[in-house]
Design brief:
The complex is a heterodimer of chains A (440) and B (514). Chain A has 440 residues and is α+β, with helices and mostly antiparallel strands. Chain A is built from 9 helices and 17 strands. Chain B has 514 residues and is α+β, with helices and mostly antiparallel strands. Classes of the chains: A alpha+beta (440), B alpha+beta (514). Strand 3 of chain A pairs parallel with strand 2 of chain B.
Chain lengths: 440, 514
């Protein structure tokens, strides 16, 4: 189905819903093509290729709301599906806060090319895909004879999406995505099998990191895990490597979502304008980064996006509030969708951060763990490297960190200049002082 | 048709307007739905009709899939209907429905996989998907005709009233009942959410070896969560129930428990403190503490990672890994549990598989690829999230059998340690064996006595190491009741787990340093 056919189908779906009694309707139609190749033992392990279709509807009828999705686009089936969807909505409870966005928020959509739709996508052949995954494995294997297992994968995606709101929004966008990774497993003297990987992802295929770099990183990261030990419990400085840092950042952003706030399930209720972190922390939501992993001109509801400061030098500046929760909370909607979250970097490299650490742990990966969203308490497993007097001494594992999000961010004393860009969370390495570690 | 279930169904549906949620959407499909047939009693013919396919089309698709060679091919037809209803701020103010319909086609050449799916059920689209999947193979060979034999499946989750046969008006009332009970139990509850979801999957697998299996797989999930405020402090907690159940599962007792357990568990958090940091003794309370087994050994026993030498258990089959009283199984046959399957997603028999028997590591969990690689029978562990994914070895219901000790003995034996009672999530690194799970609530034990409730702490250990440190196992096995999902390789499948009360002699608890 092409763009015009999809648009026609979306308009038709809106009409069917309205004819059945819906007051407002939002329709998304998407088509997504995924192709991937994985390699193991120098041959393709899996080749997958498919196209996925989706039609989703949000129905607002007599102040009632429901949402629906199907992949069956046959018109007679869809017509009944939509009629039923509207009919069932009428049996729900009345909730006057359920509406589409005020159309004024559809205005002012920026007219820029986000560089997220690779013009070269069609030129990527099956042969090229197999070659990339195969070469990545070959390169990785050629760099070390300690590898007991190596797997690589290449994949790409092309998606287009139509978004139509019955009160005056029509959006269309296309985007592409490319990734590959290599992962290696070694054996250590105790029979443990340390493993690690390196990964690259980009909106344009030409922006993927070089294969050699991935192979080297994966091997180096795996090699340095050999001989890992558990350290004594106590307070240590903690440097969170950029790649691992999204896991500790994301609870901050979850806590400022409209639903969490309105449902009293957030440790950042009533904290707008207050200092919630050290003045080293500035967080910006920027939807317009060219090639950004979460760049977009309008949000999930069709509202125009804009750059906004979330935390400015430790002070909370805004919440993420969608139309429904804004109506419920009696505030202006700010848009409930997170785009690219930028953590403003510092000036030092990761090596320099390590060099200034007297006694600490460089966390290279978080394992499991969770957060109490209401109180901010958290406890999480870590894997990393022990640092003493500015030098990496040995690999550590089987340890936990414990703390509270209302407290730990005040311990952030320094940020690296090494921004991790292949994620919607664009973050550098983070240096915290005096974190509770549990080990021996 | 099953007369009893029909009668019950009418009785259940007579109270309200009923039948306004899923059944109509079901029939809205151009597929000939199994009208007039109780889906649980439907036979092969009904399933073929449901997907508008016949044996000839199956043969044609398999021929197209194997036209470039390959040892084996399977077709996985799936139709899943899902729905949910949610209550927040005392109003049932959200509901959803979803339809997934498609066929996944897989070609195997040795341990290599070609995979494609289509949501377009036309012959042309399916043939194209088969040809796409065939690209993995390169040695043309003749595929002989096979005899198709329908597989006579067992029935581990026979239900009375499928959720999709119950109207949304009744589900709305059910949610309101739970909510008003929550509200009635404690005035300090400031927010309450109730949510219910259900799905019904119709699947049919046909293989190039002539096997056809089909199944109807129901799933029911219900959740009650609340936030309380006491002296300016807030806490939130929840209770949920899930399994392959019909609506009859939600009797008065379950409704009462949903409300009372969610309120009780929330209020309890106000009294709870933090455990100390470091290594100490650990008691796992009977039930969902089976998460320990899921993470510490279950994932490492999935044969795909062993075949690839990635697991810490890769060289341990037949070796002692735990005390003699430790026996751990992964079972697909427990009545109505979340991980129970009548047949796996590769048309293999499901079974009870012993991962560890009397302390000895016995069997991996196999799918077709790994069972061929190791030259053993499949264990019925080939599962997939949906037709959009190729099957891989997965756990079903993982639990430890009863041991020789009692709960009282175990508690008494602890000098300084914690009891872990409720859990939210876990994770494992299968190579090094590091695993963790997050404990939502538990207790501190000092000198054999419970001294303080504790909350929100992570536990981290090493799989083989912790198995060796299981020093006591009680005789009170319980299975988890909640809605556990397991994620691996981008695929999520429902699972369950269980355990008797168990003592681990030492493990690292994420707590506060004195």
């Amino acid at each position: 189905m092409n763009k015009n056919e999809s648009l026609e189908l979306a308009h038709w779906a809106v009409k069917v819903a309205q004819r059945n009694g819906a007051d407002q309707v939002a329709v998304d139609i998407s088509k997504s093509r995924d192709i991937s190749v994985s390699f193991h033992e120098r041959k393709p392990e899996t080749l997958t290729e498919s196209t996925r279709n989706g039609l989703s509807l949000r129905i607002f009828a007599a102040n009632r709301y429901s949402s629906h999705s199907t992949c069956n686009f046959k018109k007679d089936a869809l017509e009944k599906f939509i009629a039923e969807a509207v009919a069932m909505t009428r049996y729900l409870g009345e909730d006057k806060f359920r509406t589409l966005p005020d159309p004024k928020y559809y205005q002012g959509i920026k007219d820029v090319d986000l560089k997220i739709n690779d013009p070269d996508y069609e030129k990527v052949t099956s042969q090229k895909r197999v070659e990339l995954a195969g070469r990545l494995e070959e390169l990785t294997l050629s760099l070390s004879d300690q590898i007991v297992s190596c797997s690589t994968e290449y994949g790409d995606n092309k998606t287009f999406q139509i978004k139509l709101n019955s009160n005056g929004f029509e959006g269309y966008h296309e985007e592409t995505d490319f990734y590959y990774y290599t992962s290696t497993t070694f054996i250590d003297e105790k029979g443990g099998r340390p493993s690690d990987y390196d990964y690259s992802e980009a909106k344009y295929i030409k922006d993927l990191a070089p294969l050699e770099q991935l192979a080297q990183n994966a091997i180096e990261r795996t090699r340095r895990r050999i001989g890992q030990v558990k350290m004594a419990s106590g307070r240590y400085d903690m440097i969170v490597e950029n790649r691992a840092a999204s896991r500790i950042l994301s609870p901050l952003v979850s806590a400022i979502q409209g639903r969490a706030l309105q449902q009293k399930n957030s440790f950042l209720i009533d904290k707008l304008g207050q200092k919630i972190a050290s003045d080293k922390l500035t967080l910006i939501d920027d939807p317009f980064i060219p090639g950004g992993m979460a760049s977009s001109l309008y949000d999930d509801e069709g509202m125009a996006t804009g750059r906004r400061v979330i935390i400015d030098k430790g002070v909370l500046q805004t919440y993420y509030i969608d139309t429904y929760y804004a109506n419920k909370m009696g505030v202006v909607p700010t848009g409930g969708s997170r785009t690219n979250v930028i953590v403003e970097p510092g000036k030092k490299s990761l090596e320099e951060l390590v060099a200034q650490c007297k006694k600490g742990i460089l966390v290279t990966s978080f394992v499991g763990g969770n957060v109490n969203d209401t109180t901010g308490d958290f406890s999480t497993g870590i894997i990393g490297m022990y640092v003493e007097n500015g030098k990496i001494i040995k690999p550590v594992n089987e340890m936990n960190i414990t703390g509270n999000h209302t407290e730990i961010w005040n311990r952030l004393v320094e940020l690296g200049n090494d921004v991790y860009t292949i994620s919607a969370w664009r973050r550098p390495s983070l240096y915290f002082e005096g974190i509770e570690f549990s080990g021996l | 048709m099953n007369e009893i279930s029909r009668r019950k169904f009418i009785k259940f549906g007579a109270g309200g307007l009923a039948l306004l949620s899923i059944p109509y959407i079901f029939k809205a499909n151009p597929l000939l739905a199994m009208t007039g047939v109780d889906s649980q009693d439907a036979g092969l013919h009904d399933y073929l009709q449901h997907f508008e396919i016949d044996e000839r089309l199956i043969r044609d698709l398999i021929s197209a899939a194997l036209e470039k060679g390959g040892d084996y091919c399977d077709l996985f037809f799936e139709h899943t209907l899902s729905s949910s209803v949610g209550l927040e701020d005392d109003i049932v103010n959200r509901a959803s429905t979803g339809v997934a319909l498609g066929v996944g086609i897989r070609v195997l050449e040795g341990d290599q996989t070609g995979y494609s799916f289509t949501e377009d059920m036309s012959r042309e689209a399916m043939i194209l998907a088969a040809k796409t999947a065939s690209n993995i193979a390169h040695d043309v060979r003749e595929v002989g005709p096979v005899e198709y034999k329908a597989y006579n499946r067992p029935s581990f989750y026979r239900i009375e009233t499928p959720a999709e046969n119950v109207g949304i008006d009744q589900k709305v009332e059910l949610l309101k009942t739970v909510n008003s009970k929550v509200r009635g139990l404690d005035s300090r509850i400031i927010k309450s959410q109730v949510f219910m979801s259900s799905s019904a999957t119709y699947m049919l697998v046909a293989t190039s070896e002539g096997r056809i299996a089909y199944d109807y797989q129901p799933m029911l999930y219900i959740y009650s969560g609340c936030t309380a405020e006491i002296n300016g402090r807030k806490e939130q907690n929840k209770f949920d129930l899930a399994g392959r159940y019909g609506m009859e599962f939600l009797d008065d007792n379950k409704i009462d428990r949903l409300a009372s357990e969610s309120v009780k568990s929330t209020i309890a958090l106000f009294e709870a403190g933090k455990p100390p940091a470091g290594e100490m003794e650990l008691i796992l309370a009977a039930g969902s503490s089976g998460i320990l087994l899921h993470e510490a050994i279950g994932h490492g026993m999935e044969a795909d990672c062993n075949r690839k030498n990635e697991s810490i258990f890769s060289d341990k089959i037949g070796k002692p890994v735990a005390e003699k009283f430790v026996t751990i199984v992964d079972n697909g046959t427990n009545p109505n549990l979340r991980g129970t399957i009548n047949v796996d997603d590769e048309a293999n028999d499901t079974q009870e598989t012993y991962l560890v028997r009397n302390g000895i590591l016995e069997s991996y969990l196999h799918d077709r690829i790994s069972s061929q690689y190791y030259g053993v029978k499949p264990t019925g562990s080939g599962r997939r999230q949906s037709f959009r994914f190729a099957p891989i070895p997965r756990m079903r219901n993982t639990y430890m059998l009863n041991g020789p000790h009692s709960k009282e003995e175990i508690v008494k034996s602890v000098k300084k340690g914690v009891i872990a009672e409720t859990f939210t999530n876990g994770e494992v690194r299968i190579g090094p064996g590091d695993f963790t799970f997050y404990v939502k609530s538990g207790y501190l034990i000092e000198d054999g006595k419970i001294t303080m409730p504790i909350k929100d702490f992570n536990i981290i250990g090493n799989g083989p190491d912790v198995l060796k440190k299981i020093t006591m196992v009680a005789d009170d096995l319980e299975m988890a009741e909640g809605g556990w999902n397991c994620g691996k390789g981008g695929q999520s499948v429902p699972v369950s787990m269980g355990q008797p009360t168990v003592k681990v002699s030492s493990i690292t608890v994420g707590g506060v340093n004195s």
